[in-house]
Every structure is written in structure tokens, then in C-alpha cells.
Write a structure and sequence with these properties.
Blueprint (H helix, E strand, L loop, with lengths): L10 H15 L15 E5 L11 H19 L3 E5 L1 E2 L3 H16 L3 H4 L1 H25 L10 E2 L3 H16 L3 E11 L4 E3 L4 E15 L2 E5 L10 E4 L13 E4 L6 E7 L11 E4 L5 H10 L25 H14 L3 E15 L7 E10 L13 H10 L4 E3 L2 H11 L4 E2 L1 E2 L9 E4 L2 E4 L10 E2 L3 E2 L1 H6 L1 H4 L7 E2 L2 E2 L1 H6 L2 E7 L3 H16 L4 E7 L2 E2 L16 H8 L1 H9 L8 E2 L2 H24 L18 H22 L3 H27 L3 H15 L4 H9 L15 H9 L6 H16 L8 E6 L4 H6 L1 H6 L4 E7 L8 E6 L2 E6 L4 H26 L2 H6 L2 H26 L2
Parallel strand pairs: 1-2, 3-4, 9-11, 15-25, 24-25, 26-27, 28-29
Antiparallel strand pairs: 5-6, 5-14, 7-8, 7-13, 9-12, 10-11, 14-16, 17-21, 18-19, 18-20, 22-23, 28-31, 30-31
Helix pairs in contact: 1-21, 2-16, 9-10, 9-14, 15-16, 16-17, 17-19, 17-20, 18-19, 18-20, 18-22, 20-21, 26-28
Length: about 900
């Protein structure tokens, strides 16, 4: 034995040392694993956390799930690559640094200029990136750090430029003026899925509008109206359709055309809407269908433009107040609803209200048919991947959400008016436009100042991290790209299906004509114990790093894996982490007991054939180990992580600790079996709680548990089934029946009773196990086992299947009658439920024969017990 385990497990003293040992071993890198050429590959690319972020519970859940999978697959002999990286998070990072500079220097980015500002950003990132990477390591993540990638490093910059040029050359990327989501605060566009909608109370203004009265929340945009729209066939307004009307306004009269369009909601307001094409996506679509002009009246600062007369320079909110006041003066307001509820669009980064504006931007044409995709568009190929099950969503209900989003996807605006990020590889000289991989030598060419949407580079993450485009030559993958792509699984939060998952699928098909991953596993949100979203403002957040310091990283991991199911939000609390810490301490104590008990066998490399299976308890525990290994495999393969942990917990605590270790204290000679069980148990628990399992393992092994081999089930089953002993559960049932009888009769634990047992056909087997019955918390002074006999007067009666147990020395007739009647009532309910189940033809037809047989055996067992209880009651 290398070293004796301390009495108490101290996570903080062990975790950093263990992680350092793993890193130095080099086994996080699949190239260093001792595997055959035929070993299957298993790849997960870590969803890159933002460099400005601090590790939160969402990250911790992601790391726990992914590390569980990669450690499990590594033990199963796969060539496992878990590739790490971070995201430059363009807008988020720029906002953070801008605030920092303003607070420290009283300057904005324009004061510094682009070059100096970007120097400040990179200096900031050196610190923040180091922090987030250290936090990831603290959680035990077995990532291949030798392949670390950053979405804005040189290799990724090259990949982005190549992708942009390829898309540009094929006409997939184009520049055009379109209506975009504009954030006046960030001074940049946002993609549709970066807009957050919040339900808010607003005023609904009913305007007198020529022959109509119509409702709007934005009366200030009347200055940009070019039409009025009604629903086709609406009899109330059909006489106006196609006509041009002169409308009274706050800046004088102006003309609008009346059109009929299905975008109009007949039930909103009066069924008539004003059309402002430059500042509403719906209105813009109406204008395109009816060839209506567009008039821009709000600028990029969110202020009214010069064409707004006396309102020029006012923010849209200020202009609304002024214009409504002027409308009231000239009688253009019919009435105002004060409590109108509607969804308002906000920037997901800074919270500012979004202003739809016409702007010249770069777009990806998602509907353009491409030869490289067999005549399909990016949208079509990405939808086909899900429909044809080339990509599986877990849980499956999210496939519909994905397809619904893709069905309605518009061209993706990829340009952002910020400085930090991948600068668009396009240069201009007068009217000439050049798109290339390198800057033109002629300095008169000016590069487009805009940068790319963060999701452009993140969308390339699965293949750019594996060496694309260098590892893709003449349409063939080589190197890491050939070995590890498509990846096996993307694990992420369900809230970014639209933001990230959809983009990754489109980008991978364009670059490689294959999906980026085979499965998408979506975890839910981590909520507080009241079921509310955690946030700084509410003060209900839980810091996983503080929890790891307090309870250990394993406890945090296990608390995030147990009770969590894919795609569902889960309540979380510090108490839950504490409970998992208590279990880890229990596992530590079990390990200490086994290692102390089995000192003579610790050094031996025991296999199942070396074990001496002597008793029914030995057979029982090894069969349960076999079942637990099988169930753990099955649950992990099917991504039922919580169920796997719960069944492992049941074996560890309820079967091994509560029963077999207690039996081992009495029967002795179980050293080999216990060491065998401990080794296998540590392997099973390792993917969930790697630190404590590795710490125990290294105390009596010279190799790393992380690269051990997963337990084999076949040999265990074969060896155990050779032993022809009786069923240990019969002894357990007798012990439980005695404990229950004592508890129900409120007999003090210290009070010793005598027991007489009528074992019937199990007499000899029960007699062999008298010491176990006496020694396992039954407080018996003596046990006499007979085949059968007459009822013993003045005894408490306990029934276990055919076995009758008489406890002497604490009889109270009234209490005993009450207890027996209660037991009879319970058995009656159980028999009724079993009979209903077995009388259900659907169940009997569809359930496996083994299960139906087991259910019938249960019914017979209940009926035998019922008969004995009735007999016992009649004799009282």
C-alpha cells in the first residue's frame, strides 16, 4: 500500500495536487494514450466561455457533464479528445473594456483611437483569460490543453478569412442595405436572435389619420410614414385600397398610399396600421411587396434626423412626448390607452431599446442554392441534417424548436460596428472592392472598419479548432480534422440553439459538407431553490468556485449531475452540495474500512477468477456489482447521468456499506472480494467525482485511475453464477422484519429480545446465518431456528415470506394486534395493485416474460404473507 488514507478527506489539500498529476501525465492528450490503431475516437469541443466571464453554475454544469462523458469514454478505451478554448465575445468584451477605461481614464474608445484601444483590450484579456482557464481546471476538467484555441488567435483569424472569402466568392456573403436591429448604445447591429424581448407596459396612442382612427405605440414615427395598410377583404376599408390620401401631420400635410396586406392583424386596434418602412421589420416587408418608398427619420444615435424639422436632435423618446403634445393641440389624438402590454426589443448585451434602421451591412444569404451542397441552400441543408437524423437532439423535443427557427430564418447580418473582433477582410479604393486573405500592398486601399458577428467565428468552432483550412486539401480531410471530425457531441444550454447551434451546422456544411457533430445534448438552466433564475441583482446566485472551496469540486460536480435531466431547468441550493459532500465522505470512509480490512490483499492485482465466493452474501454483493456496472453503462450511453449516479449511490451506500461491510465484520475472510469491489467502484464513480476517486486509488495503486480500464461484466456474471448458494435476500428480509417489528412496537434499541424462527424449507439456510441475523442491528440475545411449530404465546410476530419470527420479551397484546392489522391492510393494498397489473392484458402482452414472471412471484409472496398474518391475528 502506497500510503494510508487520512481519517478525514480534505478536498482543498488534494485537488490541486491530483490535477497537477493528471496534467503532467500527458493523458489529457489522446496522442499519448496507449491505444491500438483500431480504437474508436470520441470528440467533444468545449463550448468556449467568454474571456470576460467568471465561471458560473451554467459553466460548471457544462464542465461536469462533458468531463463525465470524456472520462467515461476514456475508461472504455476510446481515443478521447476534449478540446478547450475561449471566445473573444466581441461586443461583451468591448463594452467591459470601454467601461473600465472610462472609469480609470475618463476617456472613450474614440479618444484613444482604434489601435490604442485594441492594445487596451488585449492587455485586459491576458488577465481575464488566465482567470477563466484556472477556474475550469479547478472543476477537474480533463481537457487537452496542448490543443487550446481562442476564437481570435492567428489560426482562427486565418480560418475566418478563408471562410469569408470562400463565401464571398460564391455569392453567399453579400453587402446590401437592409433593415437591421440597431443598438444606439453599442452602436452596432444585432442578429435577430441577439434581441431580447421583454413584456412591458406602454401607452397605445389612437391617432386621427385622415378618414381612419388607428393605434400605434410609436406616434413619433408618423414623420416617416409612407403608407397605410389594411387586411385584404376587410369591408370596412375596401373603398380606400389603392388610393393616395393626404394626411394632416405635425409638420404639415403629407401623402400616403393605402394598401391591402396579410401582415395586418384585423384585431389590433381598428384594423388599420400606419406603415413606416425604415423603422419596422413588418412595415419594411409590406413596403417591399407593394413597392412603397422608405423614409429614414432616426439616426444611429437613436435621435431624430434633420428631415424631422423642429424635432431634429431629440431622442425618439423625447420626440414622442413633443409630437404627442403637438398632436393634441391640433386635435390629431383620439384617445390614449395608458396600460397597453406589448413586447419591446432590447439589446441582449446592454439592455438598450433596439431601433430598427436601414443600414448598409454584410449578410449571409441562407436561401441561396449552392452547387457544393447539391443545389441546396444553407438553410435547407441544415434542416435536412435534423430531419434525416444525421444530428440527434437530446431531448428530442428540441428538434422542433430548431426546425421552427430555421424555417423562418432570414439572411444573417454578420457585420458589427465595433472595433474588437475579426475585421472584415474587404478593402475599398474609390468604387473598387477587393476581398482577400491578405492586405493589399497599395496603401490607398482602405479596409472595411466593421468586424464580424462573434457567432461567425464561433460557428466554425468544431472544424477551425481541428486545423481547417490547412487540414482540408483538395476536398479531403487530413490530420486532426480527419481523425476527430465530425465530433460526437455538442453539449450546451438549450437557450442558444438559435444563437450558436444553427450557425455551427450551416458553417460546417459549407466548409466540409458534413455535420459538425452527431448529437446535441441540451442542459437546462440552474435555478435557485425557489425555482427562480439566479442573478446578481436578486442576490440569489451561487458561486461554484466558492462552493468548491467550501465543499470540494467533486461535491459541486455531483450536485450538478444528480437530479438534472436533459433540457429541463433544475432547482439548486447550497444544501444540495453539502449533501453530496456527505456522500463523498461516506465513500472515503468505505474505502478506508476496506483498505484497512484487506491489507493482506491490497498489493495483489486481483481478477474475478482469484476471488473466493464462499457465502450467499458474497454471491449477492457481486451480482449487485455486476448489475450496477451494467446499469451504469446503459445509463451513461443513454445520457441518463442522474439515474446512473442514483443507482451507483444505492449500491455504494445501501448495499455495500449498510449490508455487505456489516456482514464482512462478522463472516471475515472477504479481503479479496472487498478489494475487487473497491477497485471497480472507484472506476464507476471516477467520471462523476474524479478527485476523491483518484486520491483513494493512488493510495494503493501505482498507475492513474483516469486511464484504467472500465470494469468487465461478463466474467463477473460467469464466476458468480457458478456458486450455488441460497438467496441472501431471504436473510435480509428476516432482519428487516425484526427491525420493523421492534420499531413499530417502540422497543428500545438496547433491550435484548429472544427470537424463535420457523424457517420451513429454509430452516438450514437460516440456521447457518444466525450470527448475521444477531449481528446486524436486531438486538437479539438468542436465535433459535426450527422447521415449524405452534404459535408461541406472548410473542411479537413478524412475517417474512414463508418464514415466521416470534420475538420474546416485549409483548403487548393490543399493540401487536394493532401492528398486525396495519400490516394486513398494507398487504391487501399491495395484492390489489398486483392483481390489477396482472389482469391488464396490455401489460401481460407487451412486458418482457421475465418481468411478468417476477410480478406473479411478487403476488404469490404477498398472498403467503397475508395468510400468515391472518393466522397470527386469529390466534391472538
Amino acid at each position: 500500500m502506497n500510503k494510508e488514507l487520512e481519517k478525514v478527506y480534505k478536498p482543498l489539500e488534494n485537488e490541486d495536487k491530483i490535477y497537477d498529476k493528471w496534467e503532467k501525465s500527458g493523458y489529457f492528450n489522446p496522442d499519448n494514450l496507449n491505444l491500438s490503431e483500431k480504437a474508436e475516437n470520441y470528440t467533444i469541443i468545449l463550448p468556449p466561455p467568454n474571456i470576460t466571464a467568471k465561471l458560473h453554475l451554467g459553466h460548471a454544469a457544462m464542465l461536469a457533464i462533458e468531463d463525465l462523458l470524456v472520462r467515461y469514454k476514456r475508461l472504455r478505451g476510446y481515443r478521447v479528445l476534449w478540446l478547450p478554448g475561449t471566445d473573444h465575445a466581441a461586443i461583451a468584451t468591448q463594452n467591459v473594456v470601454e467601461k473600465k477605461i472610462w472609469q480609470e481614464q475618463g476617456k472613450n474608445r474614440h479618444d484613444l483611437g482604434r489601435e490604442k484601444f485594441l492594445e487596451e483590450v488585449w492587455s485586459f484579456l491576458e488577465i481575464t483569460q488566465t482567470t477563466i482557464l484556472q477556474q475550469i481546471k479547478k472543476m477537474g476538467a480533463s481537457l487537452d490543453w496542448s490543443r487550446f484555441a481562442f476564437t481570435l488567435d492567428e489560426k482562427r483569424q486565418k480560418a475566418v478569412r478563408v471562410m469569408f472569402k470562400n463565401m464571398y466568392d460564391e455569392g453567399v456573403i453579400y453587402r446590401g442595405e437592409r433593415l437591421v436591429n440597431w443598438c444606439p448604445r453599442c452602436h452596432s447591429t444585432l442578429a435577430d436572435d441577439e434581441v431580447e424581448y421583454k413584456e412591458e407596459k406602454a401607452k397605445l396612442y389612437w391617432l386621427k389619420y385622415g378618414p381612419f382612427v388607428l393605434a400605434t405605440t410609436r406616434p413619433e414615427t408618423k414623420l416617416g410614414d409612407t403608407a397605410v395598410a389594411v387586411y385584404p377583404g376587410d369591408d370596412r376599408y375596401s373603398q380606400y385600397v389603392g388610393k393616395e390620401l393626404e394626411i394632416e401631420g405635425v409638420l404639415g400635410k403629407f401623402k400616403v398610399k393605402v394598401v391591402a396586406d396579410y401582415a395586418v392583424d384585423k384585431n389590433f386596434g381598428s384594423g388599420v396600421i400606419k406603415v413606416t418602412p425604415a423603422h419596422s421589420f413588418i412595415d419594411d416587408e409590406i413596403a417591399r411587396r407593394h413597392n412603397l418608398p422608405s423614409k429614414k427619420i432616426i439616426d444611429e444615435d437613436g435621435k431624430m434626423m434633420a428631415n424631422c424639422g423642429k424635432y431634429a436632435g431629440l431622442t425618439s423618446k423625447e420626440a414622442r412626448t413633443a409630437i404627442v403634445s403637438d398632436m393634441e393641440k391640433i386635435g390629431l389624438i383620439d384617445h390614449i390607452d395608458e396600460n397597453y402590454i406589448h413586447n419591446n426589443a432590447h439589446c441582449y448585451r446592454c439592455g438598450s431599446i433596439i431601433e430598427p434602421l436601414p443600414s448598409k451591412q454584410w449578410f449571409i444569404a441562407v436561401d441561396k442554392k449552392l452547387d457544393r451542397l447539391g443545389g441546396k441552400s444553407l438553410k435547407e441543408i441544415a434542416m435536412a441534417a435534423a430531419r434525416e437524423k444525421l444530428i440527434e437532439f437530446i431531448p428530442s423535443r428540441f428538434e422542433k424548436r430548431y426546425l421552427d427557427w430555421m424555417e423562418n430564418l432570414h439572411d444573417w447580418c454578420i457585420s458589427r460596428q465595433i472595433w474588437f473582433g475579426h475585421q472584415i477582410p474587404v478593402w475599398y479604393k474609390n468604387d473598387e472592392v477587393y476581398c482577400g486573405l491578405e492586405k493589399p500592398e497599395d496603401k490607398s486601399w482602405q479596409q472595411d472598419p466593421d468586424t464580424l458577428d462573434t457567432w461567425f467565428s464561433s460557428g466554425m468552432w468544431t472544424f477551425s479548432t481541428l486545423g481547417w483550412p490547412d487540414n482540408f486539401r483538395n476536398g479531403e480531410k487530413i490530420g486532426d480534422l480527419a481523425k476527430f471530425h465530425p465530433t460526437q457531441l455538442l453539449e450546451t444550454g438549450y437557450e442558444i440553439i438559435t444563437l450558436w447551434v444553427s450557425r455551427m451546422i450551416m458553417m460546417s456544411y459549407f466548409a466540409l459538407n458534413e455535420p459538425p457533430f452527431k448529437q446535441v445534448y441540451l442542459h437546462g438552466m440552474v435555478l435557485d431553490k425557489q425555482g427562480k433564475k439566479m442573478s446578481k441583482s436578486k442576490g440569489n446566485g451561487i458561486d461554484p468556485l466558492l462552493m468548491a472551496e467550501k465543499f470540494g469540486a467533486d461535491a459541486v460536480r455531483l450536485s450538478l449531475l444528480m437530479g438534472f435531466t436533459p433540457g429541463n431547468d433544475t432547482r439548486f441550493s447550497e444544501e444540495k452540495i453539502e449533501a453530496k459532500r456527505n456522500f463523498i465522505n461516506k465513500l472515503w470512509n468505505i474505502s478506508r474500512f476496506i483498505l484497512d480490512y484487506s491489507k493482506s490483499e491490497v498489493e495483489n492485482n486481483l481478477e474475478i477468477k482469484d476471488l473466493e465466493i464462499k457465502t450467499s452474501a458474497d454471491k449477492w454483493i457481486l451480482l449487485n456489482l455486476f448489475e450496477t456496472i451494467k446499469k451504469t453503462e446503459e445509463n451513461l450511453e443513454n445520457h441518463n447521468f442522474s439515474l446512473a449516479a442514483e443507482e451507483l449511490n444505492e449500491f455504494t451506500w445501501s448495499k455495500l456499506a449498510d449490508w455487505y461491510l456489516e456482514v464482512a465484520k462478522i463472516e471475515k475472510g472477504k479481503e479479496k472480494i472487498l478489494i475487487f469491489i473497491l477497485k471497480n467502484l472507484l472506476k464507476l464513480w471516477h467520471p462523476f467525482i474524479p478527485f476523491v476517486t483518484e486520491t483513494v486509488w493512488e493510495s494503493f495503486n501505482n498507475n492513474l485511475l483516469m486511464v484504467e480500464t472500465w470494469p468487465e461484466t461478463k466474467k463477473i456474471e460467469e464466476a458468480v453464477l457458478k456458486f450455488k448458494g441460497d438467496d441472501f435476500t431471504k436473510i435480509q428480509d428476516i432482519i428487516i422484519a425484526i427491525r420493523n417489528a421492534r420499531s413499530e412496537n417502540k422497543i428500545e434499541p438496547a433491550k435484548k429480545l429472544e427470537a424463535v424462527i420457523f424457517g420451513h424449507r429454509d430452516k438450514e439456510f437460516i440456521a447457518k446465518n444466525i450470527n448475521i441475523i444477531k449481528g446486524l442491528k436486531t438486538s437479539l440475545s438468542s436465535v433459535t431456528v426450527l422447521e415449524k411449530g405452534e404459535k408461541i404465546e406472548g410473542a411479537i410476530i413478524a412475517i417474512s415470506q414463508e418464514t415466521e419470527i416470534f420475538l420474546l420479551g416485549a409483548f403487548d397484546k393490543d399493540k401487536e394486534l394493532q401492528r398486525l392489522n396495519k400490516e394486513k391492510e398494507n398487504l391487501n393494498k399491495l395484492i390489489k395493485l398486483q392483481e390489477e397489473k396482472l389482469n391488464n392484458n396490455e401489460f401481460v402482452k407487451k412486458a418482457p416474460t421475465k418481468i411478468v414472471t417476477t410480478e406473479r412471484e411478487k403476488l404469490e409472496k404477498y398472498k403467503i404473507e397475508q395468510a400468515k398474518i391472518k393466522q397470527a391475528i386469529s390466534k391472538l
